[in-house]
Amino acid sequence: MLREILSVARADFKERSRTVKWLVVPVVLAYFAKLVTVDMSLVIAEEYTGVPTAGWYGAMLSVMGTFVILIFGFVIVGGSLARDKKTNVDQLIATSQLSNISYLGGKIISNFLLLASITITLAILTGVTFLIQGTGKIDVWALFSPFLLGTLPTMALVAAVVVFFESNRFPQKTTGNILYMFVAIWFIYASSATEGFIDVAAINIFRDSMGQAIAAQYPSFDGNNVGFLYTNSAEYLNPFQWSGVNWTMRDLLSRIPILGVSAVFFGLSYLSFNRFDSTDRWSIPPLKLPMIRSSSSKDSESDLQAGTQIEPNSTDTEIESLSPVTQSGIKFHRVLLSEFRLMIRGQPWWWYLACVLAFVGSLIPSTNALRSVVIPLALLLPLSLWSELGTRNKKYQTEELVFATSGPNILLAASYVAAVLVGFILTAPAGFRFVFMGAFSALFGWAVGLLFLPAAALASGVWSGQSRLFEISYLLAWYFGPMNDVLPLDYIGASNETVTSGITLLYLVLTIIALTATVYGRRMDTRSG
């Protein structure tokens, strides 16, 4: 069994590590290391910051890297089981003697190896950053031990949770991305705010050690409110010297429960995995009704059984004389209605309930709450709808049929307007409230956000042919932009500073650019087809 597990892990790791996505990972990590260490400063207890020693860099980047990978773990390494199903490997797995334990265990190990490679790359970049920007001697253990003892155990948890999500029917694709992200954010909050809870990023270990160092160097510090935040200016902060964590046996034992939780998720994956069975084991069996046949169908069936020869239809010989397909009779409002119905139909019941709750939540009177919480959360609901824009024709191979009967530009316009309408309906009360209250800055940000998101989805779908690119980009922008006040990613104008600084106007320009790129990309598709 161990050999089977390692064989599955090796094959899956080799396949996924050779994709283009993993060539982009070092570039993203390099920018992340620069953003955390150079562009921003970590603040401890609202007024202290560490001297950039090897231990400080190691702890700071390992904690932030763990949080980011934990939140976006499903996006980073998810899709392994779906890829097997897409490439028809699932049929080989379902009929082979490979056990579920070997298959799922190999997938978890493959996920862990991919995440470990990211962790190692981030650790190396941290060392390079310290050589360029840091002070003091190189303490290899203080620099790399946070990644070894703090980050890697959490990567095992992420690897197991991702396989658990993929082995279940409910939390898959876009739903899995969103649900996983919310669970990860809650897990991070609980681990940092609750004593005795599983410390996913060893943040409590670093916080206690840093608090002791601050108290030793600043007697006025009482040891309370040791929280973390980032700032763009470190001039008013008091620096303190910290050489890293002195890892004790208690600290090491506190990392073991993470591996235990990983094993629990592996067990849950084994119990819920249906071995690519297309039937739903939890659904009610369909009601079988007797087939009702008309007299004409019975007559035709009897004729076939009697060997009666059926004469071909005389109109079959006149197919060549049919008039060519034209687009003169197309009505835009009909295409728009069809696109809107196609977009919102077939969703699970809880999605419609969530849309009703989002609409009701947009009625709250607080403008700040609407801009920073309600609208960003409400506009996550159409993510699965928007991510399919521009991809359905390639996915279902209907380019020739759709382009010949409806016209590519008409279909693009209808898809875009229908997507904007979905976001508008969900958050319409908020927009009307902005108008009545004279909050034109919030109104402008809301309107631009509604126009930009579907445009970006269309451009991404037409040029990439996949929905995953937009899903990843949108979730990243949502988390760092409106939810964490990173102004360049605030696509909805959640703060007045975003609008007054011209960032919202820039997103309006990007909307026009995205729509232009979409039209050009679709024109290339029609010519190549």
From TrEMBL:
<feature type="transmembrane region" description="Helical">
    <location>
        <begin position="410"/>
        <end position="428"/>
    </location>
</feature>
<feature type="transmembrane region" description="Helical">
    <location>
        <begin position="499"/>
        <end position="520"/>
    </location>
</feature>
<feature type="region of interest" description="Disordered">
    <location>
        <begin position="293"/>
        <end position="321"/>
    </location>
</feature>
<keyword id="KW-0472">Membrane</keyword>
<keyword id="KW-1133">Transmembrane helix</keyword>
<feature type="transmembrane region" description="Helical">
    <location>
        <begin position="56"/>
        <end position="77"/>
    </location>
</feature>
<feature type="transmembrane region" description="Helical">
    <location>
        <begin position="177"/>
        <end position="198"/>
    </location>
</feature>
<protein>
    <submittedName>
        <fullName>ABC transporter permease</fullName>
    </submittedName>
</protein>
<feature type="transmembrane region" description="Helical">
    <location>
        <begin position="434"/>
        <end position="457"/>
    </location>
</feature>
<feature type="transmembrane region" description="Helical">
    <location>
        <begin position="252"/>
        <end position="273"/>
    </location>
</feature>
<feature type="transmembrane region" description="Helical">
    <location>
        <begin position="20"/>
        <end position="44"/>
    </location>
</feature>
<keyword id="KW-0812">Transmembrane</keyword>
<feature type="transmembrane region" description="Helical">
    <location>
        <begin position="144"/>
        <end position="165"/>
    </location>
</feature>
<feature type="compositionally biased region" description="Polar residues">
    <location>
        <begin position="305"/>
        <end position="316"/>
    </location>
</feature>
<feature type="transmembrane region" description="Helical">
    <location>
        <begin position="349"/>
        <end position="367"/>
    </location>
</feature>
<feature type="transmembrane region" description="Helical">
    <location>
        <begin position="112"/>
        <end position="132"/>
    </location>
</feature>
